[in-house]
Amino acid sequence: MSRRQRIMTIPTACVIGWPIKHSRSPVIHRFWLRELGIMGDYVVQPVEPERATSFFARFAESGYVGANVTVPHKEVAYAAVTRREPAARAIGAVNTVWLEDGALVGSNTDAIGFLANLDQEASGWDRDAKSAVVLGAGGAARAIVWALTTRNIPAIHVVNRTASRAAALAERFGPTVKVAETEALPALLAEADVLINTTSLGMEGQPPLAIDLAPMRKTALVNDLVYVPLETPLLAAARARGLRPVDGLGMLLHQAVPGFEKWFGARPVVTPALRAAVLADLGQKA
Ligand code: NAP
Q1: Which domains are present in the chain?
Q2: Protein residues with CB under 6 Å of any ligand 1 atom
Q3: Is the pLDDT confidence value at 286 over 70?
């Protein structure tokens, strides 16, 4: 059976990006399909940047039941969908699409995944949180900052190498989001309940994120969005200081839940077994 025939026969979702072959999403969705006994599939679909707009315009003809959208197509997907869910509208990017009566609908599940991960790993983390520090102001930061505003954290400080991108976040998400200079970090960390790294620093092949966690309170939570390696230098430093480290893999797993439910009609659960399967695929230990 050709790939096209298979897609037309078996309910199939995909992840669209460029490049895309390193995506872990097939491992996650195939795990759930197997676990839930659902006849379906999830594949990678490379789409070159110059083909992205026409790919989304003709999505209904592709045979796919839906898709995840990753770098560099999240803004193109945002422009292409007929209807956007509130998270996508707030963040200005779409990472999950599905069809409703032939029309393409888009959501952004990164914020949901981020919050669900912290809620699962550090229940009550936001109860009395007064101050958050977000490092980075790229695409992921947009989802994280919006997510933090939905939990009514009174002060969200964004520190980024390129200050204008941090300023754009503050402008987008309102007065609780404040731009801060790197020099202000020690004072901000002393007050912070939550620190989140949304930069790519600390990722395999990238320099480590060099910040001193000494000013932070022992109750503070440190979350790294980077998940390769799972234990980044930032998380190792947080652990060594007795802070609450939360790794980035949970966000990746939780952000996949809403898409799977839309495409295949059953709500999957993020379990230690799923985590172990993805870690094994990444060649890492829990
Ligand atoms: P992006 O839009 O390219 O943003 C990258 C961010 O990192 C920017 O703020 C950039 O600063 C900063 N940065 C890069 N190199 C730097 C350096 N040498 N020094 C200081 N800052 C540097 O990427 P993204 O999509 O936001 O992704 C960021 C990270 O989050 C990646 O590691 C990605 O894998 C991870 N992520 C994880 C999940 C998950 O589910 N766990 C989801 C999404 C993303 P400038 O603005 O100054 O360039």
Answers
A1: 3-109+256-282 (3.40.50.10860), 112-247 (3.40.50.720)
A2: 110, 113, 136-141, 160-162, 165, 198-201, 203, 225-227, 248, 251-252, 255
A3: no
